[in-house]
Fold this protein.
Amino acid sequence: MVNVDKRSDKLLLNAKVVFWDFDGVIKESVEVKAQAYLDLFTEFGSEIVDCVRDRHAKDGGASRYKRIPLLFEKCAGISLNEAEIADKCELYASIVMQNVIDCSFIPGAETYLAENSNRQTFVLTTNTPKTEIDVILDRLSLRSHFSEVYGAPIEKCTVVEEWLKTNMIPPEECIFIGDSPIDQNAAKANGVPFILRRTSENVDMSIDAADMEIKDFTAFSNST
């Protein structure tokens, strides 16, 4: 684990713009969402559920619209049409939304958002559908901390690219905080420094020497 030193202070605290992922970065909701995928397949038996668990761990932050039909095809041998994909995604949402709201915050994340949203620009980009993340943020009283909120189906890489162009902000004045290869790729493709929130789910991910990794945000609270 990289210690919070002068370099990492500068990387996060001095960034003008912070792009945030949500699951696994603001809320401890990665396992909650993983369990919801498993729940979709309980009727198929333990062997299929084990296949889903294994493939889910390797998907690295893909949205449910891509992940659900892939899991049905690869694990259950079922090809879903568009209407069936929509139905499965709606079922998944009904299982997961309240559990995401109820699960714990990443230590220090809620405090960091509250303490710094007036001096830094916070942009949320998540694979959760836009209508769903809006409800979650409102229920958690977090919406006011973000200048912009983007959800699926907009890809994170596209969000960062278009936001930088529209607002004419140099990428080196920004930071992206994420926990998956998709987050890392969205940052790197646009020249934005990356902070990896290290978890048991991403132990195999590597970062560049210029970037950093953190366990949580407790060291950054009241440090500005």
User: Anything to note?
Assistant: The domain at 31-102 is CATH 1.10.150 (DNA polymerase; domain 1).
